[in-house]
Amino acid sequence: MNGYLRMIALVVASLLLATPVARAADQLVPGTKLLLKSASGRETLSFKSRGPLTAPTPGSGDDPSNAGATLQILNPGTMETFTFDLPKTHWTVSGTTFRYVDSALAESGKVSIALIGRILKVSGKKIGITLDEASQGTLDVVLTSGTIRYCAAFGPGSVKRDQPGRFIARTAPAPGSCPGASTTTTTMTPTTTSSSVAGSTTSTSMPPAGCDCCACSQLNFTTGVPDVGTGTCTTSDGTVSGTVQDDSGATLCNLRSGGLYFGGAGVGVPLPAVIPDMSSSIVKIASCDTPTGALTYAATTDTDIGGTHPNWTCSAAGVTNPEYPGKTGCLFGPPLPIPNANSAATSTCVVNRVATSASGSGNCGDGSSNINIPLLSDIYLTGPTDGLIPCPRCAGPTGSETCQAGPNSGQPCTPGDSALGAAYPTSHDCPPASGAFIGSLPIPFALTTGVSSKTSADLSGQQFVFCGFCGQQFAPSFESPAHPCTANSDCTTIGFPTCKQRTSGAFGQGPARTITETGAAAGVCIDDALPHAARLVSVFCIPASGNATVDSAADIPGPGSVALGGEAQVGSCTVATTTTTSSNTVPTLPTTTTMQPCGGTFPTCSGTCPGTSICGNPVAMTCTCFP
């Protein structure tokens, strides 16, 4: 844009911004994160706000599944804007949570996922505006649904990196007002030149140069919104993460990201069970090699994590859980409801905890990971009393949620996931009744961003056996404790001579020969301490619980598989401080400083928080980690 046109644009912009449009439905929200990145022909957009905010009323004119929504990115300095159209055809509603999914990127805006509910979240593969200026300064975000505008502003104090091709900002306070410009905009091409007053400087904290994660001491993986589609084996909607195939290689079942599968051909529970989103697990980067990018992982304890509920995100065995007296080991995700629409009385609530401290390896260069984290799955048979809502829900007005059932009914709680369906959200603040506990299943969880698979064997007593356990020859009764086997010769206990699983096959498919789940690494260097899309997968064996009702419905012992779509992010990093001028960037000190814990006087909060928590509690109005 030439200087004259640029001057006209700025004059118009100043008039628009000076006379904001009064809209009663404007909601001013703090910005948790804004990432715009353009490099090598690839673009990335990621926006998140953890509120507080009020979601649209389902079925109203503000419901995006009725009228669609838009996302606007605006630079108030250059007035360059872009509006992403989020049409209603991609929106679904569950409770008061609205989800937009366009996995195929069919729309021109290339937004893959959006969420309006307890939080705001938008991810996509297009940034809309150009990032060829020396810096952006401030970027505004407006997510519009009907008459409601959710407005965030990322400016000085929140910007962590601002350079050609990349804008990164975090923990921005709520703006004083929404941008006054109309939400129907056109894209203007700004000038690519910039100037600064001689001698003026700005100081920013930059991550270490090059691809080097060795300044960071933790890796956090947070599950995203499950994308199981209809979930039926013969369809391919949602995100297909794996397959069950027969001897000929023909696909018997398409497995979905965000789904948990279990059992053999006789499973009586509708599959898949939906894996909760918003679940964070943190491992320690025990060693790091800069030249190769190789990382070695170890477990984090509750002391390593700190803050509120550190046992919810750590990864070590032996950690005390005040929510579940006598049951130790860091908790792995929020309570998992497994409702059985075929037989409500057999519905269960599963609480997973770490049985053996996490270990593994990964690489900074592409974000690949292999993490061994064996679990104990505590099974609560709550169906006889709670039916299709087997885990107590944590629900109510945002910021005032309470447990809806269980021993803590009526007590305040923090949702551990979003409203994924009638059985959600759940929370460890709302544990199931201890009297419903029937036992713990050891699960050899080995997560990978690569490929995880199992091949069935034809044994003398049963064909298509993925997970052999010693049992009775003609009855669904198995040795306890569980005795894994690969042949009858392994089964030496009297009364349990046969190596088999409860029924042959996998996940409702009898002649199943292979189960394959395919993970996905970030595919880029992850040293920027920002979330990167990834998928962890595992195929494993599930022993019998010893409860005839549960074992019959779940058809266990037998195989299991899971695909956890989400985001991987390095954290607890040391950062080098640099000073930028109009001509160059000069390190001010050769040393590094460690980010301090969350603190300050609200609303001016700063510092780091574990997992996906942000520094600044808008409910309590304190500088503590939230949620």
Describe the 3D structure.
With 627 residues, this protein is mainly β. The strands form nine sheets. Strands 14, 15, 18, 19, 20, 21, 24, 25, 30, 36, 37, 38 and 39 form a 13-stranded antiparallel β-sheet that branches. An eight-stranded antiparallel β-sheet has the order 6-7-8-9-3-2-13-12. A five-stranded mixed β-sheet has the order 1-11-10-4-5. It is globular, with a radius of gyration of 26 Å. The protein is built from five helices and 43 strands.
| Rg, Å, rounded | 26 Å
For the record, give the distance between the C-alpha atoms at the N and C termini, rounded to a whole number: 44 Å
User: Spans of 5+ residues with little confidence (pLDDT < 50)?
Assistant: 1-24, 181-209, 577-595
- Number of helical segments? 5
Provide the structure class.
Answer: mainly beta
What can be said about the biggest beta sheet?
Answer: 13 strands, antiparallel
Number of strands: 43
Into which percent range does the helicity of residues fall? under 10%
List keywords for this structure.
627 residues, mainly beta, 3 domains, 13-stranded antiparallel β-sheet, 38% strand, disordered N terminus
Short characterization:
The protein has 627 residues and is mainly β. It is built from five helices and 43 strands.
Topology of this protein?
Layout: H1 3-18, E1 26-28, E2 31-39, E3 42-49, H2 64-67, E4 69-74, E5 81-86, E6 91-94, E7 97-101, E8 111-116, E9 120-124, E10 139-145, E11 148-154, E12 159-163, E13 166-172, E14 202-206, E15 216-223, E16 240-245, E17 251-256, E18 259-262, E19 273-274, E20 280-288, E21 294-299, H3 302-305, E22 336-338, E23 348-354, E24 359-363, E25 369-372, E26 375-380, H4 383-386, E27 394-395, E28 402-403, E29 437-443, E30 446-448, E31 451-455, E32 468-471, E33 484-485, E34 498-500, E35 514-518, E36 532-542, H5 548-554, E37 558-580, E38 585-587, E39 593-594, E40 599-601, E41 604-606, E42 614-617, E43 622-626
Parallel strand pairs: 1-11
Antiparallel strand pairs: 2-3, 2-13, 3-9, 4-5, 4-10, 6-7, 7-8, 8-9, 10-11, 12-13, 14-37, 15-20, 15-37, 16-17, 16-35, 18-19, 18-37, 20-21, 21-24, 22-23, 23-26, 24-25, 25-30, 26-29, 27-28, 31-35, 32-33, 32-34, 36-37, 37-38, 37-39, 40-41, 42-43
